[in-house]
Amino acid sequence: MKINSVNTTQLEKRFKVDLIVIDVREPMELRLNHISGTINVPLSELTVKIKPLDPQLGYLMCRSGARNMRAANLVMTSGCHVVNVKGGVSAWNGPVSSIGGY
């Protein structure tokens, strides 16, 4: 199964439409920075929480892009179509929110 990917610039252009962007990092990682409008579903909980997600299209991201590829493989086996965001939050040039360090 092929996993499609976009870079963060492409995602930012598409972010203006109604997208599902799932951040698969753990909650404590989101304290450092996160993109407003994303949904946090940690990779450790993804297989339990995947059923309520839209089966059509979702964008997966993490800090650097490695975890979302693992997440994409898990999600696609459940029948959902997802797009990997290359580079993750680290490559994001848009605004991020922070609630403090670890």
UniProtKB/TrEMBL annotation:
Gene3D superfamilies: Rhodanese-like domain (3.40.250.10). This is Rhodanese domain-containing protein. It comes from Lentilactobacillus diolivorans DSM 14421. Residues 15-98 form the Rhodanese domain. Coiled coil: none annotated. InterPro entries: GlpE_sulfurtransferase (IPR050229), Rhodanese-like_dom (IPR001763), Rhodanese-like_dom_sf (IPR036873). It comes from the Bacteria.
